[in-house]
Amino acid sequence: MATLLNIIVVEDHEALREVTVQALRGEGHQVIGVDCAEALADQLGVMPVDLMVVDLNLPGEDGISLTRRIRQSQPDIGIVMVTARGELAEKMDGYQSGADIYLTKPVSLDELTAAIHALARRIKRPAYGTPVLRLDVHKLSLAGKTGEVGLTAYEAAMLGAFTRAPGRRLENWQLIELLGKTEADYSKASLEVQIFRLRKKLAQASAETQSIKVLRLLGYQLCVQVEMI
């Protein structure tokens, strides 16, 4: 059985975007279409994203820049670049920016679907631990099978932000901003202390040991399932 994915199609040609979105939905995937990179920011928090189909020639930020930025922030996401540019140097630029697959227009829907199916075999969603932990941001508490643990306001805000973030990933600067600080006046060592303390609270509430993992040179990822109440 094919892996069903959460997909975003970034394509400024309206008719082509709609045809692609409908075709992929017909395969059972959950799909959102946007017309530019700038519109993508409004959709990234709607659902965790497994794969993106990106046109190279976009208004505003182009597909190369977008792909490079997404690859840096979400290294495990699948990226299919679709473009009319078919020169070898242009393909090399696409792959070097972070694209997994580079398809030259016109692309048949069968070819695009086959590429996505091939890429889906290597895409693995994070394996979230059990049992579900319940975060109450009003009571500042985290409840699990071993009982209820009190949280600081920052710990509750940080855990809530992880829960809402695409892929449950947050970059260092995002975590620092939650404190009302900037990277200039808040050290990475101080952030590591906060993460250590949150891991300890998660463990007390019955989470697995590897509840938050380090994303090298980027930030952190929550690896347990947390439900906000």
From TrEMBL:
Coiled coil: none annotated. Pfam families: Response_reg, Trans_reg_C. One of its GO terms (cellular component) is cytosol. PROSITE patterns: OMPR_PHOB (PS51755), RESPONSE_REGULATORY (PS50110). Residues 125-224 form the OmpR/PhoB-type domain. One of its GO terms (molecular function) is phosphorelay response regulator activity. Residues 125-224 bind DNA. GO terms for biological process: regulation of DNA-templated transcription. Keywords: DNA-binding, Phosphoprotein, Transcription, Transcription regulation, Two-component regulatory system. It comes from the Bacteria. The keyword Phosphoprotein applies. The modification 4-aspartylphosphate is found at D55. Residues 6-120 form the Response regulatory domain. The keyword Zinc-finger does not apply. PANTHER family: REGULATOR OF RPOS (PTHR48111), TWO-COMPONENT RESPONSE REGULATOR ORR33 (PTHR48111:SF1). This is Two component transcriptional regulator, winged helix family.
